Amino acid sequence: MMARAFTPEAWRARAQRRLPKPIFDFIDGGSGDEEAVRRNRRVFDDVRFVPQVLKAPVERSIGVHFLGDSWKAPIGVSPMGLGNLAWPGTDRGVIGAVGDAGLAYSLSMAGSIPMATAQELMTGKLWFQLYLGEDFSVLMRLMQGARDAGVEVLMLTVDAAWPGLRLRDRANGFGQPLWHHPASLLSHLLHPRWSLTTLLRGIPSMVNLLNVDERLVGAEATRLFMASMVRAKLNFETLQRIRDQWQGLIIVKGVLDVDDAVKLKSTGVDGVVVSNHGGRQLGSVVTALEVLPGIRHAVGSDWPLLFDSGVRTGEDVARALALGADFVLLGRPWLFSSAADGPDVGPAVLARRLADELDNTMAQIGCRSVQELRGRAIISSRGAA
Ligand SMILES: Cc1cc2nc3c(=O)[nH]c(=O)nc-3n(C[C@H](O)[C@H](O)[C@H](O)COP(=O)(O)O)c2cc1C
Predict the structure, then answer these.
(1) Which ligand 1 atom sits closest to the C-alpha of 109?
(2) How do residues 180-206 score in pLDDT, each as one tens digit?
């Protein structure tokens, strides 16, 4: 028997075999023709390091101090709704793994684990993500819950002003209840291990929403509420209202435009996540990696920049750091590693791999600290070099 491979591609392939199609597609899919998802990966191939020699990078550290905390590596988990769909216990497994590894975790407001439980499991401080809906009463209660749980960093996602065209989800009839669509029912029956475990452990729900507003109890009510969140009339005033209410740090997620980043900086926001939402909003969107250097240049060398969309390895993390990011997040790989090898194994292996690969990359190119990575990669256009 062949040994199992622990690579992002192998995890994705194993997850595809183990998950009902609508669930795999929900996690894996992008918007429109999904070209943004593919480009998010391809663009990393063009970022290359020029190693410098005789710099004795034997003593080196991948640790950083960022957003008021110390982290063993500048790596974390992007906020993801309904993570337990990937496999029951995924949220718990991922938080445990990144906590043990000293990495960061962003809990989505649509996450499937209660905030207090997440904070208990997490070794460091949890980051909490909100969509900016118009129902301020719900947002305020979620923010109060976050404060009570000791959260200091609020992440506001602003790139979902309208739902993306997720064609695979439409074709699969993905939604709640999970198996109401005939094709989806068949696929769930063909994957009895996932289906039975999910039934026994409870179908994942957006527990943090249910905890703050009883009107949101019931799958349909939650779905309608989330739909309203991604159709909100977002503007800088909405953002300012949140800024006035939240004493901690505010990071805005989903920024790709240089002028937006500059304006957000002047509005009193504490940093942004340069992200195209993993290609889940628009097929023809730019990649986050190609706009990262311009945004870094415009906001200055010290203003906090996080990055996600397409990162798969520790070398990718190093590439994003080289092009101007301070901290790098991954989405899908955490869910696929859990679906492929179980929540207690996959995410822990992934966390170790990412840190090892980042460390090794730094050794190869002669960097002793993460800060030394900045500016150390060149972008080669296809066919050149
Ligand atoms: C299943 C899934 C659910 C997601 N849910 C959210 C969410 O609730 N809030 C949010 O800001 N982004 C959400 N995202 C986007 C991620 O935070 C992140 O931007 C994206 O996954 C990064 O790309 P990558 O998967 O290629 O690493 C979700 C992504 C996935 C795959």
Answers:
(1) 8
(2) 777 788 888 999 999 999 999 999 988
Q: What is the pLDDT of residue 385?
A: 34
In degrees and rounded to multiples of 5, residue 66 shows phi and psi of: -150, 135
Question: Is residue 56 very low, low, confident or very high in pLDDT (cuts 50, 70, 90)?
Answer: confident
The CATH class of 8-377 is alpha beta
Among protein residues, the one with the nearest Cα to ligand 1's atom 20 is 278
Ligand 1 lined by 309 (C-beta under 6 Å): yes
Name the nearest CA neighbour of 76 among 336, 339, 354, 357. Answer: 354
Residues 130, 160 contacting (CB under 8 angstroms)? no
Between CA 315 and CA 312 the distance in angstroms is 8
Closest to 373 measured CA to CA, from 354, 385, 358, 356? 358
Q: pLDDT at position 176, please? A: 60
Instruction: For residue range 63-95, list pLDDT tens digits in order.
Output: 999 999 999 999 999 999 999 999 999 999 999
What is the distance between the alpha carbons of residues 73 and 69, in angstroms, rounded to a whole number? 11
Tell me how far apart the alpha carbons of residues 246 and 153 are, in angstroms, rounded to a whole number: 9
pLDDT at 382: 54
The verdict on the CB of residue 304 being under 6 Å from ligand 1 is no
- Measured over the CA atoms of residue 132, residue 137, residue 140 and residue 142, the dihedral's sign is negative
Q: Is 297 a catalytic residue?
A: no
By alpha-carbon position, which residue is closest to atom 15 of ligand 1? 277
Q: Is the peptide bond before 177 cis (omega within 30 degrees of 0)?
A: yes
